[in-house]
Write a structure and sequence with these properties.
The complex is a heterodimer. By secondary structure, chain A is mainly α. In chain A, about 75% of the residues lie in helices and about 0% in strands. A 6-stranded mixed sheet of chain B has the order 6-7-8-3-9-10, sandwiched between helices. The chains are: A mainly alpha, B alpha+beta.
Chain lengths: ~230, ~325
């Protein structure tokens, strides 16, 4: 038990002393996840709104594909992208394997279906009179989508936060595509995996605590957003 | 007279259940048309089709004698305004809501202020202009929704149960406004109501829906004659009304509003006549009587009442009804 309590106090000491190694890792992790979330949101929210507002052949099938992608193990995404980015792969010439770009792409791919699905749910669970009202007021397709996003903005933000939470806690694809390079692609999760295997329990625990804190903050903001009344 | 709408072979189904089926129906332009029908008769569904916010499962709708395609083109969209039974306002102020409607209809920005103020004034909602829509009462919400609908100066105004949630003063105001709206050239109003009297007073055309089908209007107790002051004279009777429509030539009395008694009633009801029962028939849970008081009145009463009053053919009875139960048109 001493081992655990000693490590825990050591971890707190590392966090409080603003250990540069730790904060470098935290910064990399947050920067990669935020970028990935922005890219994914920029694609997923318009796609989700477009899919929710339109009726087309194969919509139900597309919904099944999205649900399947949401459940896809991250190592499978890592594996597929590794094949694309590795020197012999179709995108090998760009040399992005083991770079932050590769991790950003992987995380964006991972969270895209989650965000898109949540965006679809956001539109579908909006007031059933919203879309007919806007249509009867003369909204053309693009202004209609803008107004729908505006009316569901809290749910859309919740979708982005959920995606960010998934990205920052992700380890499989980050490890396979980033390579855990210190100062470049070493994220909190990959660092924890490495430090633990090295026996550096304190550093791993410190990162784990920060990760938990981030998860806690995200959950608080989600529950604030999901309160029944926003006013 | 041109038609605002002409519907052919329209069918609307929801989950394999047919909720509206109309073979052929024309709604005339430049007048007010009332849709009658009970709950679930298809009034709202028909209005949504006319507003082109929902699509029929099959059939064709002509708008001003032109075949239109789905989704409706903006130039047609701008001519139609629709106020739902429970209107939906977006977040923000009343002013923002009306402005959004004008922007979505691509009305020039320079005209916005003038049109918004005009719409607010017409619906007596100017004092609500800066108020957040989430703090409006049911009646205020309805009036603001009407302001939003008329702001872009449509040719067709579709209203689903426009008088619900409104107090008497605002009902009177809205009635006047709808009548003056119809009198402008090229303007058409279609409204749904379950209140026959109100609908008949306002409308030149009446469409009765029953289980999703257009059914022939069944009006009982229609009498012809002339109105002098508030008294309506048929050939044989003088009936008190609450209306002052000088050109009125008809009245109708809802058979359910007439009260039957064996003795003359001491009450506030202004109309009281005596007559003989000449017809009794049972209809599921109600009984229908025809009473000859000089004019023949159709009366609907409950099964219990006929037993309590021991009514039989040939009995002399008294019938009473309020002046306000008489619709004049």
């Amino acid at each position: 038990m001493d081992y655990f309590t000693n490590s825990l106090s050591g971890a707190f000491a590392l966090i409080i002393s603003f250990d540069p190694t730790i904060y470098q890792i935290v910064f990399t992790s947050v920067a990669i996840s935020v970028t990935a979330s922005f890219i994914a949101a920029a694609l997923a929210i318009p796609s989700g709104v477009a899919m929710a507002l339109n009726q087309f052949k194969g919509k139900a099938f597309l919904q099944h594909i999205l649900n399947t992608l949401m459940a896809m193990p991250t190592v499978v995404i890592g594996l597929l992208l590794y094949g694309l980015f590795s020197r012999l792969g179709p995108l090998g010439q760009f040399g992005i394997l083991y770079s932050p770009i590769a991790v950003i792409i992987a995380e964006a791919v991972l969270i895209f279906p989650i965000m898109m699905n949540l965006a679809i749910t956001a539109v579908n669970s909006a007031d059933s009179r919203l879309v007919p009202t806007l249509v009867s007021l003369g909204a053309r397709p693009f202004p209609l989508a803008i107004q729908v996003i505006r009316a569901t903005r809290y749910a859309m933000l919740a979708a982005v936060i959920t995606g960010f939470g998934r990205a920052i806690g992700e380890v499989g694809a980050a490890m396979m595509l980033g390579g855990n390079i210190a100062g470049s692609t070493r994220t909190m999760t990959t660092a924890i995996a490495l430090e633990t295997s090295k026996g550096e329990f304190e550093l791993g625990l410190a990162l784990g605590l920060i990760l938990l804190l981030i998860a806690f903050i995200l959950n608080i903001s989600l529950s604030l957003l999901n309160r029944p009344a926003h006013d | 007279m041109t038609n605002a709408y002409h519907l052919h072979n329209i069918k609307v189904s929801l989950k394999q259940k047919e909720i509206l089926s109309i073979d052929d129906l024309a709604i005339k332009a430049n007048q007010c048309t009332a849709l009658f029908g009970g709950n679930g008769a298809g009034k709202s569904t028909l209005l949504r089709l006319l507003a082109f916010t929902h699509q029929a499962s099959q059939g064709e709708i002509l708008l001003f004698n032109e075949a239109v395609t789905w989704p409706l083109k903006p130039k047609y969209r701008k001519r139609i305004a629709f106020v739902e039974q429970q209107p939906f306002l977006l977040e923000g102020t009343v002013y923002d809501n009306i402005k959004l409607a004008l922007s979505l209809q691509q009305v020039r920005t320079s005209q916005h202020k003038m049109l918004i103020e005009q719409a607010l004034e017409q619906t007596h909602t100017g004092h609500l202009s800066k108020q957040n829509t989430q703090t409006l009462s049911g009646g205020e919400l309805k009036r603001v929704a009407i302001a939003r609908a008329i702001a872009y100066q449509p040719d067709i105004l579709l209203l689903d149960e426009p008088f619900s949630h409104l107090d008497h003063d605002h009902i009177d105001l809205l009635e006047q406004q709808l009548q003056s709206f119809c009198q402008q050239t090229g303007k058409t109003v279609v409204l749904s109501t379950h209140d026959h009297l109100q609908g008949m007073a306002l409308s030149q055309q009446i469409i009765t829906l029953r289980s999703g089908k257009v059914s022939p209007p069944l009006f009982d107790n229609i009498f012809n004659g002339r109105l002098e002051g508030q008294n309506f004279f048929t050939d044989k009777l003088c009936i008190h009304t609450t209306s002052k429509l000088p050109q009125a030539q008809h009245i109708a009395i809802d058979p359910r509003q007439i009260i039957i008694s064996n003795e003359p009633l001491q009450s506030s009801m202004q109309n009281s006549f005596s007559g003989h029962i000449i017809f009794i028939t049972e209809q599921s849970t109600t009984v229908r009587l025809i009473i000859d008081c000089g004019e023949r009145f159709h009366v609907t009463i409950s099964l219990e009442s006929i037993n309590t009053l021991k009514l039989q053919l040939g009995n002399q009875v008294y019938l009473s009804f309020k002046a306000s139960a008489v619709s004049v048109f």
